[in-house]
Amino acid sequence: MEQQRAAGTIGMWVFLVTEIMFFGGMFLAYTLYRNAYPAAFASASNHLDLKLGAINTAVLIFSSFTMAMAVYCTQVGKRQLQILSLILTIGLGVSFLGIKAVEYHDKYVDNLIPGRLIPGRPFKPEVQAPGTPFDEHKLHLLPGASVNNVEMFFWIYFAMTGMHALHMIIGVGLLTVLLIGSIRNRYSPEYFNPVEITGLYWHFVDIVWIFLFPLLYLLGRHLAHGG
Amino acid sequence: MSEHIVPVRVYIAIFLALMVGTALTVFAALHDFPWQFNTVIALTIASIKATLVVLYFMHVRYSSRLVWVIVASALFWLAILFALTFSDYWTRSWFQVT
Amino acid sequence: MQSGFPFIPESASTQSGNVDALYFYLSGVTIFFTLLISGIIIFFVIRYRRRTPYEIPRPIAGSHRLETLWSVIPFVIAMSFFVWGAGIYFKNSRPPKDALEIYVVGKQWMWKFQHTTGQREINELHVPVGRKIKLIMATEDVIHDVFVPAFRIKADVVPGRYTTQWFEATKPGRYHLFCAEYCGMNHSQMGGWVIVMEPTEFENWLSGNANQMSPAAAGQQMFQTLGCASCHGANGEGGRGPALVGLFNSQVQLTSGQMKADEGYIRESILNPQAKIVAGYGPIMPTFQGQLNEEQIVQLLAYVKSLGSSQPQPAPAKPVVTSAATK
Amino acid sequence: MEEFKVPPPSKVNYLNAEYGLKSWLLTKDHKRIALLYMGSISLFFFIGGIYAMLIRLELLVPTGNFLTSTTYNKVFTQHGIIMIFFFLIPSIPATLGNFLVPMMIGAKDLAFPRINLLSWYIYLLGGIVTIYALLAGGIDTGWTFYAPYSTTFSNSYVVATGLGIFISGFSSILTGLNFIVTIHTMRAPGMTWFRLPLFIWAHYATSLIMILGTPVVAITILLLAFERLAHIGIFDPAIGGDPVLFQHLFWFYSHPAVYIMILPSMGVVSELIANFSRKNIFGYKFVAFSSLAIAVFGFLVWGHHLFVASQSVYAGMIFSFLSFAVAIPSAIKVFNWSATLYKSSISYDTPMLYALGFIGLFAVGGMTGLFLASLAIDVHVSDTYFVVAHFHYIMVGGALFGYLGGLHYWWPKITGRMYPEGWGRFSALVIYVGFNLTFLPQFVLGYLGMPRRYHYYPPEFQVLHVLSTAGASILGVGLMLPLFYLLWSMRYGKKAGGNPWHLPGLEWRTQSPPLTENFEHTPVVTWEAYQFAPVEEMEVVGKFGGDKAEV
Ligand code: HEA
Ligand code: HEA
Ligand code: CUA
Ligand SMILES: [Cu+2]
Fold it and tell me: How big is the CA angle at D457 (ends D451 and D463), to the nearest 5 degrees?
């Protein structure tokens, strides 16, 4: 049993290593192009919804906390609390995805979906002309930014957040299985490995977001004060 | 593997720290620091937050050496990927402008 | 065509001898080690063949001394390969200042060459013997690669930027030109000949084909028709846009820093003018991306270059890949 | 002192424990899964081999028009893709590794038997998707998928093939994960790290590469597919992307992947050299750690595929330097194997012939890799037949020879019957001769300037191409022989018994074919790896190896 438990945990850690490398490829592309096209990336970044991004960060951190509590409650055998924590975690995860969907929709409205990801709706943002009144639906280009490279940003944005969202969806699925398991009283202080491993996965997804948030939403904000 | 059970107050403390970190990073992002300090600050805060999650929420602090090694190797390989790719791009003239 | 020694191709450039020498050295080392290892193995295999079915030889644990020896010796040999190989490579990847420039555009599946004096060729390249030649290469579509075995040179041609390579032919003759990066259906037919001629012959060839407009002249024409002149002045002397006279190879003051105006920079300035703004000017220059093919861009480039370079051209630090990617 | 008993051979073993298709398709037994894998990779090897024969046939004449250029391009691409992703990468790990890793460390199974089965299904799914792509129209990008040809210009089934490779990548990740966890947590009592057979070390190193590299190629292929489907991508110059970034990401995996292919083979060869010369490996620790060193250094050299790809000159020099560094652990292995033979007792059984062949051919393949790593030479021979010869020497002369050697060596364990020794030696010889005749001329071709992936070529290269094709036919015949006699031996071969080679390894201390649980009792290991004991003791139940070896 002990060996089994160790194997499960180590297996999940090894799996998380592969996940790190998987996201690593995209982080690399991000770093490269952010360095090459700082102005375009900052302009695009400023067009993202800072408020929603920050709220989502908080939501996800909170869900990580409830997840940690779920593991804790299983370890000490508080079943009611364990179920409650799991429900909360799932709820927060779903909220995150909901907010993300709202953001995606905003981008859709502003014609910011890159390439032909959505057939018939190519990337074609309206660019704010200098001196005209601020319009939040228009792209405000900083000096030196070119629209082409803004498209690159949005592709990286959708690729990374999309991959992250996919991981969230899988995570919510795993949590649902756990929830059913705990309602059926399957886990106990002697046997909590599934909860623990799912927790590891969930926290990992949280960590990815902890990096995505500043990289995608924050860098370059200072260039357009209050923008 | 350790049977270590992390007390609830640690979790709460970490949770609060993460929230504060988030607020800080947003706050810092809206201020104009010289040079690349905006980037440095944002990434430092993110790394601290990630470290807290890894150490406490993911229990690495209380885990076997093997888990430490696994985490470290992931970071090491990520560093390889970045360092050697940039050994190309940074020595091309592409990045001459700063 | 075939040289006397059938294991190496014709050697017809200043660098081919160096590469061959290194190749012989490596071949020697390889043959030596292969024979050494095979010899040892064969000797052991015969000498220590199993004589009785159940014999158990005495175990030997190993020897740190020996193991260190056969880690250090290969390392030292390998470093000699490295130093020698990198030395030749580094030298060969710096195009000399006084080289004759030839523009190369690859497209599926042909090579177009244009001499600064206007002669155009397809799948054939005429060059004089004893002159340093620098190829400035671009592609209309996928990655191609200019490979001339007799010169021991090869470099990929990458979409979105210029790459360069150079050679100096030493022997008149006809040499294979291959495309050495897989580029689709007729990759194997995307080639032709490099024809190396005596200088006088080459002059004759040039004058025999002199009816074409030089790339710079063609570029000048486009400069007028595309409306560049409306901002940069009829002769590039400047106006709403900065002066282009003396721009090439100068140090440009940008809003975001400083940069050398090499080929890649000029290319980018035409295709993605917003990316790097000259200090003191607004981002008003329209992009010409999608309106020009690589050949036309090359001609504009040739024109801008013909407006003179302000500084004596310093040896570029990173040849072969000097170029910048376009935005 | 722990008594270790060889059980009287039971009639029940993993092969006949259960019958019926379902018992195979739903099995969680690592040995059965290994056989499932073996069947599927053999199938892919033959498909790949037929493509190889088509290549060689077409190149018999300079302007062969038995195939069109488009078809030729598809043929070599599919040859490369199938051989690499569906044959060589899973070959040893998923078959011999799957079978033997648990047995060699004294475990009942891998740590995650169900994941192991899942990995086979994933592999199969990836294979089916790829075969679908091939039948639907094929792919013509070269196995390297370089952008922008693959993203924009190719008119072939790039996305479907990419998907197949993407899927099968997960099977390799899961196998690697399973091995790592198994080796860490399931070793039998007394099986310390330095008592592990070198085969295990090699597989551990291989698994590291699998889990660290594969995800990067997975995301790369995914991005490539999007670039093709949605016309949006990080490799597209139109929006500021760099096609060379694709090459960086691709080779970040694919260079280490060549060590996924060779390390397991090196593991096999270490076993063969030691066991067929009855001698412990000279410098066990050096050989063990050199596997890890190859796995780590292997990640530092990918840029040597980009020397002429417009990579920065300085990066080229860094990668060149590091490529030479990675050669040293390989050199250590070669010399230590040779030294192991000193004052040993060498038998000339088929597996040993393959092992000896491996050393020589790998040395040649590896040292010609050094030609390629020497910048100035690579400029000339990159993308020529020199490269083709280099990697076939390592992948066929090295990796495939190791696989064949291992297959013969463990055949009695797997099937319970011996292969016919005479046929084994004969075909090893034929393969060796055919192989050299096929690929030795290609080194010369390459230096003469014959580019690779060429359908038509200048006539002066014909002589060497004819030689190569002649060799390939011999090689093809040689490779057909094992197929026949191995299958034949499954029914008519001599019964093998638990330990036909009289060896001390744990896998030999149980019956052949083994029980489903591998061992009757969990073994307790008291001996070092490759500690040979007199045959009387190996045979006598209860006085087996271990206790005697204390001396
Ligand atoms: C199993 C597969 C495998 C292995 C193990 C290797 C091993 C090595 N490879 Fe190879 N390689 C490939 C498969 C492999 N390669 C493939 C498939 C390609 C082409 C991909 C494509 O484009 O399609 C390729 C291409 C390739 C290139 C790019 C060529 C080009 O396209 O321009 C280079 C360049 O450096 C290279 C180098 C090396 C080196 C230095 C090693 C080293 O690891 C070798 C180390 C081994 C030894 C050195 C031999 C043992 C040592 C001795 C006998 C002692 C004597 C030694 C000394 C004196 C130093 N390889
Ligand atoms: C594991 C990897 C592997 C293996 C085992 C092989 C095996 C062989 N390969 Fe291949 N090869 C590659 C990996 C491999 N190759 C790769 C990665 C490429 C690059 C692709 C690219 O450029 O994208 C390549 C490219 C390649 C080329 C270059 C094509 C070109 O650039 O235009 C050639 C040319 O000779 C070739 C030949 C062969 C031959 C003759 C064999 C033989 O060893 C095969 C022998 C096997 C059999 C013959 C099968 C068994 C027998 C039968 C099925 C019966 C039929 C036989 C007869 C009728 C005789 N291969
Ligand atoms: Cu152009 Cu190959
Ligand atoms: Cu490599």
Answer: 100
Q: Which residues contact D295 (CB under 8 A, 6 or more apart)?
A: D205, D206, D208, D209, D256, D259, D263
Tell me the residue type at A176.
T
d(CA D14, CA C297): 70
Closest CA to D252 of D296, D218, D216, D221: D216
- Could you identify the residue written with the tokens 């072939």? D156
CA C165, CA C158: separation in Å to the nearest integer? 13
Q: Which of A80, C154, A164 is nearest to D306 (CA)?
A: C154
Query: Is the shortest distance between the CB of C155 and ligand 3 below 6 Å?
Result: no
The candidate with the shortest Cα–Cα distance to D280, out of C67, C51, C58, is: C58
Residues in chain C, total? 327
3-state SS track over D187-240: CCCCCCHHHCCHHHHHHHHHHHHHHHHHHHHHHHHHHHHHHHHHCCCCCCHHHC
Instruction: Specify the length of chain B in residues.
Output: 98
Q: What is the mean pLDDT of residues D278-285?
A: 91
Question: Which among A37, A54, A75 has a CA at the least distance from the CA of A199?
Answer: A75
Is D382 a pocket residue for ligand 1 (Cβ < 6 Å)?
yes
Q: Which residues pair with C258 in a beta bridge?
A: C253
Return the number of other C-beta atoms located less than 10 Å from residue D153's C-beta. Answer: 15
- D52 CB less than 6 Å from ligand 2? yes
Q: What residues of B are in contact with residue D318 (Cβ under 8 Å)?
A: 84, 87
Output the six-digit token pair for A123: 């990337």
pLDDT tens readout for residues A54-80: 999 999 999 999 999 999 999 998 889
Q: Per the CB < 8 Å rule, is D453 touching C22?
A: no
**Of D210, D528, A141, D243, nearest to C145 (Cα)?**
D243
Contact pairs from chain B to chain C, CB under 8 Å: 29
- Yes or no: say if D315 and B91 are a contact pair by the CB < 8 Å rule: yes
List residues bridging with C136 in a β-sheet: C103, C164
CA dist., res. D186 & res. A6, Å (int): 10
Interface TM-score (ipTM) > 0.85: yes
Q: Are D431 and D475 in contact (CB under 8 A)?
A: yes
The pLDDT-based confidence of B93 (bands split at 50, 70, 90) is low
Around Cβ D503, how many Cβ atoms within 10 Å? Answer: 21
| D252 alpha carbon – ligand 2 mean position (Å) | 24
C327: pLDDT strictly greater than 50: no
- Count Cα atoms within 13 angstroms, Cβ side, for D434: 19
User: D338: helix, coil or strand?
Assistant: helix
Q: Residue A209 burial by CB count (10 A; 0-12/13-18/19+): exposed, middle or buried?
A: buried
- What's the whole-number mean pLDDT along residues A107-136? 84
Q: Using alpha carbons, list the distances in angstroms from residue D284 to A155, C60, D352.
A: 50, 10, 19
Tokens (6 digits) for B64: 């076997």
Contact predicate D541/D6, CB 8 Å: yes
On whether the CB atoms of residues D5 and D511 are closer than 8 A, the answer is no
Q: CB distance from A127 to chain C under 8 Å? A: no
A201: closest CA among A6, A13, A8, A3?
A13
Q: What is the Rg, in whole angstroms, of the alpha carbon atoms belonging to chain D?
A: 23
| Structure-token pair, residue B33 | 């620091």
Q: Residues A81, A121: contact at Cβ < 8 Å?
A: no
**Sign of the CA dihedral with A35 first, then A36, A39, and A44 last:** negative
pLDDT tier for residue C308 given thresholds of 50, 70 and 90: confident
Residues 6+ apart with CB under 8 A from C157: C104, C106, C137, C138, C139, C143, C144, C145, C146, C163, C181
- The helix (H) or strand (E) run that includes residue A57 is helix A50-76
Contact C327 A146 (CB under 8 A): yes
